[in-house]
Amino acid sequence: MSVLIDSLLAILIVYLALQCLLAPRLTQTVFLFFAFGLALALAWVRLGAVDVAITEAAIASGFLGVLFLDALRDFSFITSGKQESSDAANHSVSKKKPAFLSLPGVVLVLGLGLFLLITLEAVWKVPESGGLTAATEALLPESGVENPVTAVLLNFRAYDTWLEMGVILLGLLAVMAVGGIKIFPVHRKTPEDPVLQQVILFFTPILFLFGAFLLYFGKNGPGGAFQAAVLWGAIGILLHLGGRPVLTVIPRWLSQLLLIMGIGFFLMLGFLLLAGGASLFEYPPSYAGVLILIIETLAAISIAVTLVSVFVHLNQLNKEESN
Amino acid sequence: MTITELFTVILLVAGCFFFLAGTLGVLRFPDLFTRLHALTKADNLGLGFIAAGMALHIASPWAAIKIFSIWLFTLLASSTSCYLIARFQKEKNPPKNRKEEG
Amino acid sequence: MDVFFTIVIVFLLLNIAVGLIRVWRGPTVADRLLTTQLFGTTGMAILLVLAGYLEDPDFLNVAITFNVLAILLVIGLVKVWKKKKGESP
């Protein structure tokens, strides 16, 4: 019976992915991508991978949407002269022949759907244990945490996570390299819409609390630093959009410290462990739990600040170009 | 079928009915403001019914608190979105045919 | 009971699929934005039913995460696009 849910989800995901690529207008793509993220999160839930589902929900639902819309604004400014006319042209085209009804589209979707159904049938009886599941389970008591995903990400393959944090930081550096490092003028705009203000103020503590919950809960269940970081980063973006630019009021050195805090602590810990005769990121089992929690907290703060910085810098960049 | 299950079924069916109504409204109503009206009211009521049904089914206080807060957040976010979208549209192109009030 | 939950989930998924028509037809940006509300609310309902169907309340965390962040998209669109209008009249 659940085959019905799975096959429907699979068809929906493939269809949405195709439509994201084929949609004639970029605004359509952004909203289709939102639906795609939702369908993907549902699929991860259906597969039992709650950690991945939370990450997908966190990144695809709000954060990427805001970044895309910001980019779209920039894009539409470049072509602003032609925007109206091309919009009208697109409209007439789509009125004449909606792409999702065209014959190649239907054939492609049907074919892929069929292919997926056959694949689903083929992989229906995957062996229960495979890969490194058994090895992870065996070493779990020494890792200091109870969630196998957290154990792999922050203990067994910690260097992987460490490098990923470096990648995110590099992304911010690229944005700064294009836009230049600026000291933003501290200006408090006049309070905007009262409803918006109240909602932002209501959601700020909830985002913070739920992020902290996911961070701490990550030791024993689904959740962890990245998910918490997106939720905390959302606070900064919300406040920035609501006319309270938090990142610009704290001093430069503090924001820079916050940015490198996670990756820096990780690196120092690695060197200390190397100096102590262990290999890189080989925590002593008795301290592993505490160390992982500290690393995760610092990493979450760093990633959150990085995400907000990326957003603010891009936003500022677009604003200057349009002036 | 126990009495709890019966209530769950009734609540979920009621929820599905309101979701159907909301989707039909979004598809069939003539302009944005009526569509907003259909969506943000019917769907949230439907979600409320489904939330109540699932809280009854899972039957754990911790889960019930989470489910209730999910509904509360959705209500808040949804009504705010409705307001923001309507204002956004109104500023871009104000609605016509509103003279009969005066 | 499981059969009933399956039917509910499939019904709600079909709701989302039908709602996609509105993304296509538009005609305004606001109409498309409206459908994110449809997807968000319906997705919440599906996640709730899935949590009961798979008997794992951990899935509720996915729902809360999605929930508290979905508003970012709407606020983002309204604020970001308003700025554009203000700067290049």
Automatic annotation (TrEMBL), chain A:
<feature type="transmembrane region" description="Helical">
    <location>
        <begin position="53"/>
        <end position="72"/>
    </location>
</feature>
<feature type="transmembrane region" description="Helical">
    <location>
        <begin position="30"/>
        <end position="47"/>
    </location>
</feature>
<feature type="transmembrane region" description="Helical">
    <location>
        <begin position="6"/>
        <end position="23"/>
    </location>
</feature>
<keyword id="KW-0472">Membrane</keyword>
<dbReference type="GO" id="GO:0005886">
    <property type="term" value="C:plasma membrane"/>
</dbReference>
<dbReference type="Pfam" id="PF04039">
    <property type="entry name" value="MnhB"/>
</dbReference>
<dbReference type="InterPro" id="IPR050622">
    <property type="entry name" value="CPA3_antiporter_subunitB"/>
</dbReference>
<dbReference type="InterPro" id="IPR025383">
    <property type="entry name" value="MrpA_C/MbhD"/>
</dbReference>
<comment type="similarity">
    <text>Belongs to the CPA3 antiporters (TC 2.A.63) subunit B family.</text>
</comment>
<feature type="transmembrane region" description="Helical">
    <location>
        <begin position="224"/>
        <end position="241"/>
    </location>
</feature>
<keyword id="KW-1133">Transmembrane helix</keyword>
<feature type="transmembrane region" description="Helical">
    <location>
        <begin position="287"/>
        <end position="314"/>
    </location>
</feature>
<dbReference type="Pfam" id="PF13244">
    <property type="entry name" value="MbhD"/>
</dbReference>
<keyword id="KW-0812">Transmembrane</keyword>
<feature type="transmembrane region" description="Helical">
    <location>
        <begin position="162"/>
        <end position="184"/>
    </location>
</feature>
Automatic annotation (TrEMBL), chain B:
<keyword id="KW-0472">Membrane</keyword>
<keyword id="KW-1133">Transmembrane helix</keyword>
<dbReference type="InterPro" id="IPR005133">
    <property type="entry name" value="PhaG_MnhG_YufB"/>
</dbReference>
<feature type="transmembrane region" description="Helical">
    <location>
        <begin position="6"/>
        <end position="30"/>
    </location>
</feature>
<dbReference type="GO" id="GO:0015385">
    <property type="term" value="F:sodium:proton antiporter activity"/>
</dbReference>
<feature type="transmembrane region" description="Helical">
    <location>
        <begin position="68"/>
        <end position="86"/>
    </location>
</feature>
<dbReference type="Pfam" id="PF03334">
    <property type="entry name" value="PhaG_MnhG_YufB"/>
</dbReference>
<protein>
    <submittedName>
        <fullName>Na+/H+ antiporter subunit G</fullName>
    </submittedName>
</protein>
<keyword id="KW-0812">Transmembrane</keyword>
TrEMBL record, chain C:
<protein>
    <submittedName>
        <fullName>pH regulation protein F</fullName>
    </submittedName>
</protein>
<keyword id="KW-0813">Transport</keyword>
<dbReference type="InterPro" id="IPR007208">
    <property type="entry name" value="MrpF/PhaF-like"/>
</dbReference>
<feature type="transmembrane region" description="Helical">
    <location>
        <begin position="60"/>
        <end position="81"/>
    </location>
</feature>
<feature type="transmembrane region" description="Helical">
    <location>
        <begin position="6"/>
        <end position="24"/>
    </location>
</feature>
<feature type="transmembrane region" description="Helical">
    <location>
        <begin position="36"/>
        <end position="54"/>
    </location>
</feature>
<comment type="similarity">
    <text>Belongs to the CPA3 antiporters (TC 2.A.63) subunit F family.</text>
</comment>
<keyword id="KW-1003">Cell membrane</keyword>
<dbReference type="GO" id="GO:0005886">
    <property type="term" value="C:plasma membrane"/>
</dbReference>
<keyword id="KW-1133">Transmembrane helix</keyword>
<dbReference type="GO" id="GO:0015385">
    <property type="term" value="F:sodium:proton antiporter activity"/>
</dbReference>
<keyword id="KW-0812">Transmembrane</keyword>
<keyword id="KW-0472">Membrane</keyword>
<dbReference type="Pfam" id="PF04066">
    <property type="entry name" value="MrpF_PhaF"/>
</dbReference>
